[in-house]
Design brief:
Layout (H helix, E strand, L loop, with lengths): L10 E5 L11 H14 L2 E5 L24 E6 L12 E6 L6 H23 L5 H18 L9
Parallel strand pairs: 1-2, 2-3
Antiparallel strand pairs: 3-4
Helix pairs in contact: 2-3
């Protein structure tokens, strides 16, 4: 990984636990990745959607818990752990040093604002699918709850 970093590198992407191999990085490996990101001032993007599907008594450790001084974006969701893939419910948690990523966070705010407006508009105009409208109301309620909590989705 270290050999791949150059002056154009902005971030590291981690998938832990890994799909399709199921590999789970031990704390020592995660700490080495954090140290590498710290040395090169890199953002860490961590896909942890399989965090509840760990086998053989192993324990999942979120890389963000090892890097409170680095900007980390942790992705997760319900589609894998709760087997509801059709609903596409997911989230991201922004943690660590958010001051270095103000432009990124502003871009996320704008992207999510327009995405939610588009989904509401499409759902409201779907007159033949009341079940879908009820599902979207629940999803939008959950989104509102998550967005009101500090460090979840987007810092306001």
């Amino acid at each position: 990984m270290k050999k791949k970093i150059n002056d154009r590198t902005k971030a590291l992407v981690i998938i832990n636990p890994n799909n399709p191999t199921g590999a789970l990085y031990p704390k020592e490996v995660l700490q080495q990745i954090v140290d590498l990101a710290r040395e090169h001032h890199l953002i860490i993007f961590s896909d942890e959607i399989y965090d509840r599907l760990v086998m053989d008594g192993q324990e999942h450790i979120s890389i963000a818990s090892l890097a409170p001084d680095l900007f980390c974006v942790t992705f997760s969701g319900l589609s894998k752990s709760h087997m509801i893939a059709g609903f596409r419910i997911g989230w991201m948690i922004l943690s660590g040093n958010k001051s270095i990523a103000a432009d990124y966070i502003e871009g996320l705010k704008n992207a999510f604002q327009y995405a939610f407006m588009f989904q509401r508009t499409c759902t409201v105009h779907c007159s033949d699918c009341w079940a879908e409208i009820r599902v979207w109301r629940v999803i939008l309620f959950l989104v509102d709850v998550f967005m009101s909590r500090e460090n979840l989705f987007i810092m306001r």
